[in-house]
Amino acid sequence: MSGHRTMRMILLSLAALAAPASLVHATDFEITPLVGYRFGGKLHDASLDQDRDIQEHSSFGLALDLLKTPDTQWELTYSRQNTSIEPLSGAAAPGSVDLTVDYVQFGGTYFFSENGHEGADPYVVGGLGVTHFNPSGAGLDDRYEPSLNVGLGLRVPLTPRVLLRFEGRGYVTFVDTKGSIFCKSDAAGAACTIHARASGLWQIEALVGIAFRL
Fold first, then answer.
1. What does DSSP say about strands 72-85 and 57-69: parallel, antiparallel, or unpaired?
2. Higher per-residue pLDDT: 84 or 18
3. Tell me: the pLDDT tens digits for 126-153?
4. 61-83: string of b/e by CB count within 10 Å (b at 16+)?
5. 143-159/121-135 β-pairing
6. pTM confidence score
7. Chain centroid to CA 173: how far?
8. How far apart are the first and last CA of the chain?
9. What's the gap between Cα 190 and its chain centre?
10. Strands (E), the chain
């Protein structure tokens, strides 16, 4: 493909994004890259019978939305936080443990504004899915647990095909309190010393993204 043809296609695409709403065919699908900040979450260290916090840290993710009705969407979301478990002096594994926490959730959104989706559009969001805990370190096993999320958001149009999205979500992961959450698989390591504090591990996440209607 020639450079002139490529440039022409780019300009046409930009013009389509900036076209008035009356000239743009409404689409049913949105893709939203997200960045955020996540905090909360405690684990219980059995070696000293004390809590260890999951450190607050930035996060990033992606949301895929498919229109169901004028006021509702199906949604698939993925969010990742690269964080660590705080150190605990005197524990069998005393140092901080690098940890990746991933959420994959399927659910939907419901828009409750009364302005016919003109201007800022508030919504509620929720879903069910799975949490993946992936600690770094030799012999530490990762773990998958069921989870759910609920939240509130606001969608602000920039053009008919591009929107800003602001969102806050709460996650709860259901962890068996009788089972260890991380174990050392080698005999020399600290075997199964970090346990879930309770049946529900909570985290809160603030998110902002740019939604593209395709």
1. antiparallel
2. 84
3. 999 999 999 887 667 888 999 999 999 9
4. bebebeeeeeeebebbbebbbeb
5. antiparallel
6. 0.81
7. 13
8. 23
9. 31
10. 29-39, 42-45, 50-53, 57-69, 72-85, 97-111, 121-135, 143-159, 162-174, 180-182, 194-196, 200-213
Q: Other C-beta atoms within 10 Å of 175: how many?
A: 22
Q: Which CATH class is domain 28-213?
A: mainly beta
DSSP 8-state class, residue 94: -
Joined together, the tokens standing for residue 11 give: 């300009």
List the one residue out of 130, 140, 122 whose CA is nearest residue 79: 130
3, pLDDT greater than 80 = no
d(CA 121, CA 214): 19
What DSSP element (H or E) covers 6? helix 3-18
Task: Give the integer Cα–Cα distance in Å for 210 and 33.
Answer: 6
What whole-number distance in Å separates Cα of residue 69 and Cα of residue 83?
38
Q: Is the pLDDT of residue 90 over 90?
A: no
Tell me if residue 12 falls in helix, strand or coil: helix
Q: Tokens 């049913």: give the residue.
A: 28
Helix (H, G, I), strand (E, B) or coil at 2: coil
